[in-house]
Amino acid sequence: TSLGNSTGRGPTAPPRTEAPTPTKGPARMNSSASMRSTTTAHMPIARRRCITCVAILGHIFSGLTIVIINKMIVHDHGLHAPALVSSTGALFTAAFTRILVFFGKVTVRPVGDRPWEFAFRRALPVGVFAAGSLCFGNMSYIYLDAGFVQMLKAGTPALLLVVLVVMRVEAVSCTTASLAMLMVLGSTLASLQQPNATTLGLAVQMASQLCEV
User: Fold this and answer.
1) What is the pLDDT of residue 41?
2) pLDDT of amino acid 152
């Protein structure tokens, strides 16, 4: 009995199987991110709604708490250092984020082949204006009341629409423009009825809102 195949070239070797190579770097991070998104997608609707409601309530109450605490620090206790107050929040956020990354709870994705260009042309301007918004926002508590500052912040969406139209980024409909003007009118009426409003305080708050948009 012949051990060769039909062509007479001798015995056939068994097929080779290659071991799967472990994923490294971005491929591993992308796979973990896709697994998390799949887990979230298969989560029951009721549970997702509960998590969303808890996140919204946490955002609302944390925002109110931050406003009250910043007002007490800057205005009531006389610590007229808005940049210091703003930097503490940013430093805590950075440290907490790095801790989450270290324990694998947050995935960091690469920004591309030229990270320095991304850092200086995109990330740096956003960081500068975000810092200006926080710094000027806390500085406004020195000259204005906390409630009045929140009334002025209600006009930020209208200011954003103006910037979008001027920069020709987005077209605004007449209905949207009318609602924006209604916000501006409400902020103007609140300014006229505020006895402790100062020109410097209004200018500082306007600078904060311009940096935000």
Assistant:
1) 60
2) 83
Q: How many helices (H) and strands (E) does the chain have?
A: 9, 0
The neighbour count for residue 98, using CB atoms within 10 Å, is: 12
Tokens of 204: 């500082």
Distances 116 to 79, 97, 111, 174, 185 between C-alpha atoms, Å? 37, 21, 9, 42, 44
**Cα–Cα distance for residue pair 133/136, rounded to 1 Å:** 5
- In angstroms, rounded to a whole number, what is the distance separating the alpha carbons of residues 103 and 31? 17
d(CA 192, CA 187): 9
Token pair for residue 1?
A: 């009995």
CB 181 within 8 Å of CB 158: yes
φ, ψ for residue 13, nearest 5 deg: -85, 145
Q: What is the pLDDT of residue 119?
A: 86
Q: How many CA atoms within 13 Å lie on the side-chain side of 79? A: 14
Question: What is the widest separation between alpha-carbon atoms in the chain?
Answer: 110
- Structure tokens, 159: 């200011």
Instruction: Read off the pTM.
Output: 0.63
Residue 164 CA to residue 158 CA, distance in Å, equals 10
User: Which of these, 172, 170, 142, 156, lies nearest to 211 by C-alpha position?
Assistant: 156
Identify the pLDDT of residue 164.
84
Low-confidence residues of the chain: pLDDT under 50: 1-8, 10, 22-29, 33
